Amino acid sequence: MDRDTLRRGLDAVAEQDPQVAAGLALVGYPEPRLSDHGFATLLNIIISQQISKEAAASIRGRVEALYPSGTAAEFLTLSDENLRGAGFSRPKVAYARGLAEAIEDGRLDIAILAEMADDEAVAAITALKGFGRWSAEIYCMFALRREDLFPGEDIALQEAMRRLKGLESRPTAKHARALAAAWSPWRSPMAVFLWHYYRGAPQS
């Protein structure tokens, strides 16, 4: 989603939801989040799982230096020792190799992925070991520019939704997705806004 799409979506939701309108007035519009479509971005999702942004950035820099082309084929020439030295855990080595192999042998067709419907694209990514629904939806939102997805398992989104909506407790993933249904067809811009709101709104 570029800046214009993001703002158009948020304005459309704010017209129907006074709490979103109040939230926008409080913290303003977020900046867009954009990623490239392809192996490197999917690999970065694996790298980022369950570690801090700073740690992920450090590992990403080290591994990118090992395969300058950024292709799955070149990545597969790296040894496990190379990857462990760059900071990969043993499970992440396996996930990353599985991803690269799936792209190289055609089980995951990156070109076709971009043409799939949202649910089909999410299913194709989650078929790979190491990718859950959250990871797949994040990729679809930021690399495929999909406008109507909501990764309800994200704890920051749940907490931001609690504050924005004045809920007594943080909603479960299922409840968060149900609440977000009212924001369709602009759930992706609302997810970006909620991350922004999480960082900028007063806690209550």
From TrEMBL:
<keyword id="KW-0234">DNA repair</keyword>
<dbReference type="Pfam" id="PF00730">
    <property type="entry name" value="HhH-GPD"/>
</dbReference>
<feature type="domain" description="HhH-GPD">
    <location>
        <begin position="47"/>
        <end position="202"/>
    </location>
</feature>
<dbReference type="GO" id="GO:0032131">
    <property type="term" value="F:alkylated DNA binding"/>
</dbReference>
<dbReference type="GO" id="GO:0008725">
    <property type="term" value="F:DNA-3-methyladenine glycosylase activity"/>
</dbReference>
<protein>
    <recommendedName>
        <fullName>DNA-3-methyladenine glycosylase II</fullName>
        <ecNumber>3.2.2.21</ecNumber>
    </recommendedName>
</protein>
<dbReference type="GO" id="GO:0006285">
    <property type="term" value="P:base-excision repair, AP site formation"/>
</dbReference>
<keyword id="KW-0227">DNA damage</keyword>
<dbReference type="GO" id="GO:0005737">
    <property type="term" value="C:cytoplasm"/>
</dbReference>
<dbReference type="GO" id="GO:0032993">
    <property type="term" value="C:protein-DNA complex"/>
</dbReference>
<dbReference type="GO" id="GO:0006307">
    <property type="term" value="P:DNA alkylation repair"/>
</dbReference>
<dbReference type="InterPro" id="IPR003265">
    <property type="entry name" value="HhH-GPD_domain"/>
</dbReference>
<dbReference type="GO" id="GO:0043916">
    <property type="term" value="F:DNA-7-methylguanine glycosylase activity"/>
</dbReference>
<dbReference type="InterPro" id="IPR051912">
    <property type="entry name" value="Alkylbase_DNA_Glycosylase/TA"/>
</dbReference>
<dbReference type="InterPro" id="IPR011257">
    <property type="entry name" value="DNA_glycosylase"/>
</dbReference>
